[in-house]
C-alpha cells in the first residue's frame, strides 16, 4: 500500500504525460518507485514518487496472470 507524493506522477509505460490517479485499476501490472522509506506496519506502507502502468489488467483484479 502507498500514496503518491504531491510531486509524484503516474504514467503509462513509455509515456511522459502524467495520468490521473483514477486511471489505476485492480489487476494492472505496475512498477513503482518509492522515497525509500517504508512503514513497518502490516501491510507495509510507502510514499511513491512514480507509478508506471506496464500492462492493463484483465479479469477479476486478483493479480493472477
What does this structure look like?
The chain is mainly beta. The chain contains no helices and 3 strands. The protein has strands at 2-12, 29-39, 45-55. The chain is globular. It starts with a strand and ends in a 10-residue tail after the last strand. The model has no long low-confidence stretch (mean pLDDT 84).
Main features:
mainly beta; 3-stranded mixed β-sheet; 65 residues; 0% helix; globular
Oligomer: single chain
**Residue share in β-strands:** over 45%
Compressed to H and E, one letter per element, the order equals EEE
Tell how many strands the DSSP assignment holds. 3
- Counting DSSP H or I runs of 4 or more residues, the number of helices is 0
Strand order of the largest sheet: 1-3-2
| Major beta sheet summary | 3 strands, mixed
Percentage of residues assigned to helices? under 10%
**Integer-rounded radius of gyration:** 12 Å
- Report the mean per-residue pLDDT as an integer: 84
Structural class: mainly beta
Give the termini separation.
Answer: 20 Å
Indicate the overall shape.
Answer: globular
Catalogue the unreliable spans: none
Task: Write a short abstract of this structure.
This protein is mostly beta strands and 65 residues long. It has strands at 2-12, 29-39, 45-55.
Show the helix and strand layout.
Blueprint lengths: L1 E11 L16 E11 L5 E11 L10
Amino acid at each position: 500500500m502507498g500514496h503518491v507524493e504531491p510531486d509524484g506522477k503516474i504514467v503509462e509505460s513509455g509515456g511522459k504525460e502524467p495520468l490521473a490517479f483514477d486511471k489505476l485499476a485492480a489487476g494492472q501490472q505496475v512498477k513503482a518507485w518509492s522515497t525509500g522509506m517504508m512503514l513497518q506496519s502490516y501491510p507495509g506502507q510507502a510514499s511513491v514518487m512514480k507509478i508506471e502502468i506496464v500492462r492493463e489488467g484483465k479479469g477479476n483484479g486478483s493479480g493472477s496472470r
